[in-house]
Amino acid sequence: MSTTYDWLVQTPDLPNAQQARLSNLSAHLAYNQPHIEAGNLVLTGPTLASQPESADQIPAMTGSVSLLKAGSEEEVWAIVRENPYAKVGVWDLDRATVTPFRCVVRVGM
Predict the structure, then answer these.
(1) pLDDT of residue 46
(2) Taking the CA of residue 89 as centre, how many other CA atoms within 13 Å lie in the half-sphere pointing to its CB?
(3) pLDDT for res 1
(4) Whole-model pTM?
(5) The sheet that has 5-12: what strands, in order across it?
(6) Cβ of 7: how many Cβ atoms within 10 Å?
(7) Three-state secondary structure call for residue 101
(8) Are the beta carbons of 102 and 47 closer than 8 angstroms?
(9) E-assigned strands of the chain?
(10) Of 4, 6, 51, 71, whose CA is between 20 and 30 Å from 101?
(11) Cβ within 8 Å of residue 91, ≥6 positions away
(12) Number of Cβ within a 10 Å radius of residue 76
């Protein structure tokens, strides 16, 4: 069995990407599902410009944060680049970061 490591991935959105993000959400979630089922995508979600004022308000999203398990940084970048958000121009891959990370607390939601 190969060793996997934790990686913190921060992918900022390109300017004015909110509509493309919402329009491609289903494809993004479908792409993520096998990574979730394999235990490689541990945490993910959008970063927000601010917290919404009500539960039914769609917040202004500014990017995404994920915690991935992979054997190398190259594996992580391959997963990121193949994501529909990367392919349709939601994420600004020039400003994205993949950082080695060691998660010491994991609590189920």
Answers:
(1) 97
(2) 5
(3) 57
(4) 0.92
(5) 41-48, 61-70, 5-12, 97-101
(6) 24
(7) strand
(8) no
(9) 5-12, 41-48, 61-70, 97-101
(10) 51
(11) 11, 12, 13, 14, 17, 63, 64, 80, 83, 85
(12) 22
Size (the chain), residues: 109
| CB distance 30 to 4 below 8 Å | no
Containing H/E element for 22? Answer: helix 18-23
From the list 95, 58, 98, 93, the residue with the least C-alpha distance to 76 is 98
SS3 83: coil
Nearest to 63 by CA among 48, 53, 52: 48
CA distance linking residue 69 with residue 84, whole number of Å: 19
Q: Which residues of the chain have pLDDT under 50?
A: none
Cβ–Cβ < 8 Å for 51, 61: no
Q: How far apart are CA 68 and CA 71, in angstroms?
A: 10
User: What confidence score (pLDDT) does residue 2 get?
Assistant: 78
- Torsion 61-66-72-78 (CA) sign: negative
Tell me the two tokens of residue 11: 């992918």
